[in-house]
Structure formats: C-alpha cells, structure tokens
C-alpha cells in the first residue's frame, strides 16, 4: 500500500470514529431531551425533594380526585390546602392556588416567590417544602403534613386548647422566635415573613410549632427602598404600615408580639392592644388575661410566662426602632437570665410595659 492509500485509510478510520462518537452523543442528547420532555409534558414543570422522584402530576390528581373538596383541610388568601396520601404511603399537604389566581401573573409571581423562599430555608421550626408543580391547569406546593393544623384552630377548640398546656405554649413561643430570628439574621439577604399570625403557625402531632406560608415573604435588599403594598393579616400588622409602606424586620417583631399574647390569652388580644396606650392597664393584672381554660401555672412556668409577656410588650412598642431584634429575643429565650417574677396576680400590664430590665439599648433594638 502506497503512502497515499495509507493516509486515505487513516482519514477514513478517524472520520468513522468521529462519526460514531457524534452518533453516540446524539443518542445521549435524544435520551436527555426525551426525559426532559416527559418532565415538562403539557407545560408541567415538576420537582420533588426527599422522595423517590417517581411522583408525577397525574399522581397528585389521582390521590386528590382532581382536588376534590373532601381532601381540602384549609383555605387561605393565596389558595387552598389539601391532604393527600401518595402511593408510597407518605402523607403530604398540597397548597394549590385558586384556579383564577393561577392564571394571574401577579399570583404566579407570588407562587414562585414562595418556592424561592422555601428552597433556601433550612430550619427545624420552619415547615419543610418537598417540592412544587407548575402546570398550565394549576400550581401547587408539596409540603410536609402537620397533623394538628394551625395554632389558631387549636386555640379555638376548647378540648385541643387544654391539651396545649402552659409548658407547651412557652415552647411554641420559643420555637416561633427561633424561626423568625433565623430568617432575619441567618438568611442572606434577610427574609421578612410579613404575615406572622396564628393561622400561619402549624403544629405537628407533638404540638411542636412550625412557621408556614411564605406567599408574601420578601427578601430585603439593603440597596432597595423596600417599598411594597401593605400585606399581612388584619390584627397582626405593625402600626407604622398605616402611614408608610417601608417593610422591615420590625414588622415581623410586632406580629410576633401579637401572637405571643394570643398564645397566653387563648384568643386574639384585639381589645387589649387598643387599650395599651391608656392608663387602664395599671389595674389589669397579668393573671386575669391568661387563658382561663387552663389551671394556674406552677411557679416555674409562671416565671416563663412572665418573661414571655414582658418580651411580647417590648415587641409591641409603637415605635419600630424601640422594638427588640428577633435575634436578641431568641437568645434571651435560650439564656437562663430571666427576671425574678412576683406572683402573676400581683403583676399589672402597666408594669410589664415599663419593665426597666427590658429597656433595650441600641445594640438590642437596631435592625
């Protein structure tokens, strides 16, 4: 074989190898495309964490019988929540946007915002997100299922409220404080929930608390003005939002204060909040506002209740800058440096509001 034939053979072999390699790559790409097209069939984008990866949109439709009302366990401002048992046996909670809202770009943005928040959050007292589905028919989030439902519902039920004894209530207050502190001080950028309320605190079978519903959550960019429409639940919104739309962490701090009083009182403290600025609180004792469905707390728990109430009133200060940070609140709940409490029937709300021990300095109140 002469040199010309030898080179021609080498070129043919090399070209054949390239062709086979290209053909192999094309096959791989075809498989990947086929796999991806299956995942996005009919405009469906589906992602699941912590499960076997075999859950599909059709499975959700099947186990809820196309979101039949019988599976609905709650309805909120952004959608309805359904309980569903997957083929694997796992029970999940599905938060589905109302159909008309799913077609609204504004609500689509809120849905994606909640996904973004939850995929970046990892805290033991924040509800876990297992996945989501964006489909042309509907959009929904896949949460862990928490058996006891919302704190509001438990407090509204006389039998379940008694189950929630004073020790459990103090533990719930601490758990909420730790979760909000995490969002404010450990997430970068800071996350402000903007809708802390008893409806958005969920309880598991052990009555442990988890913060939920990030549909209105906002990432606070230090370079932005943080101007937004007023959001939140009536009765929990910080007073400054009546005249300014500047959202800060201190809005969550105020809402936390309302929830703490609600836990201690067993009902929303609406009338009490309106009377805080008057002198009438001098004659209202702490023991009188506590949930009367429970027996009086023992001295040790009474000290925790006194401390929690003191923190609540600090969080409810009219001036946002005077409220403590959630980091400070969380740390105080973890410390053993608690004020010595007199018997609760001798402590007035006016005294709680004016506790010298908790006149926080700049380092404790700045954002």
UniProtKB/TrEMBL annotation:
Record carries keyword Transmembrane helix: yes
Location(s), subcellular: Membrane
Keywords associated with the record: ATP-binding, Glycoprotein, Kinase, Leucine-rich repeat, Membrane, Nucleotide-binding, Phosphoprotein, Receptor, Repeat, Serine/threonine-protein kinase, Signal, Transferase, Transmembrane, Transmembrane helix
Enzyme class: transferase
Pfam families: Pkinase (PF00069)
Record-listed ATP binding positions: 95
The enzyme's E.C. designation: 2.7.11.1
Catalytic activity: L-seryl-[protein] + ATP = O-phospho-L-seryl-[protein] + ADP + H(+); L-threonyl-[protein] + ATP = O-phospho-L-threonyl-[protein] + ADP + H(+)
UniProt main location, coarse: membrane
GO molecular function: ATP binding; protein serine/threonine kinase activity
Assigned GO CC terms: membrane
Residue ranges of every copy of the Protein kinase domain listed in the record: 67-334
Membrane topology: Single-pass type I membrane protein
Protein's recorded name: non-specific serine/threonine protein kinase
UniProt source species: Fagus sylvatica (Beechnut)
């Amino acid at each position: 074989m002469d040199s010309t034939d030898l080179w021609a053979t080498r070129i043919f072999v090399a070209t054949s190898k390239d062709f086979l390699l290209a053909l192999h790559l094309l096959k791989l790409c075809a498989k990947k495309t086929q796999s991806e097209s299956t995942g996005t069939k009919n405009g469906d984008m589906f992602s699941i964490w912590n499960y076997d990866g075999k859950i599909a949109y059709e499975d959700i439709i099947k186990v809820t019988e196309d979101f039949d009302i019988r599976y609905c366990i709650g309805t909120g401002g952004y959608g309805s929540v359904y309980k569903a048992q997957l083929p694997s046996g796992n029970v999940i909670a599905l938060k589905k946007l109302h159909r008309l809202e799913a077609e609204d770009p504004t609500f689509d943005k809120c849905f994606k915002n909640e996904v973004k928040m939850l995929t970046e959050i990892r805290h033991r007292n924040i509800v876990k997100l297992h996945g989501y589905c964006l489909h042309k028919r509907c959009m929904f989030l896949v949460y862990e299922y928490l058996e006891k439902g919302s704190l509001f519902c438990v407090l509204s039920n006389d039998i379940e409220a008694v189950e929630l004894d004073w020790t459990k209530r103090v533990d719930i207050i601490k758990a909420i404080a730790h979760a909000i502190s995490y969002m404010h001080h450990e997430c970068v950028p800071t996350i402000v929930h903007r809708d802390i309320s008893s409806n958005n605190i969920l309880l598991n079978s052990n009555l442990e608390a988890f913060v939920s519903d990030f549909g209105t959550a906002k990432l606070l960019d230090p370079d932005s003005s943080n101007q937004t429409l007023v959001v939140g639940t009536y009765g929990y919104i910080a007073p400054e939002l009546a005249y300014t739309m500047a959202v800060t962490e201190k809005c969550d701090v105020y809402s936390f204060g309302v929830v703490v009083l609600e836990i201690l009182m067993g009902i929303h403290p609406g009338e009490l909040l309106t009377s805080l600025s008057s002198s009438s609180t001098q004659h209202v004792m702490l023991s009188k506002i506590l949930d009367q469905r429970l027996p009086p707390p023992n001295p040790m728990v009474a000290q925790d209740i006194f401390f929690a109430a003191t923190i609540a009133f600090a969080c409810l200060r009219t001036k946002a800058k005077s409220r403590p940070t959630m980091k400070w609140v969380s740390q105080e709940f973890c410390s053993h440096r608690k004020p010595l409490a007199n018997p609760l029937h001798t402590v007035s709300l006016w005294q709680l509001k004016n506790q010298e021990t908790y006149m926080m300095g700049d380092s404790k109140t700045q954002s």
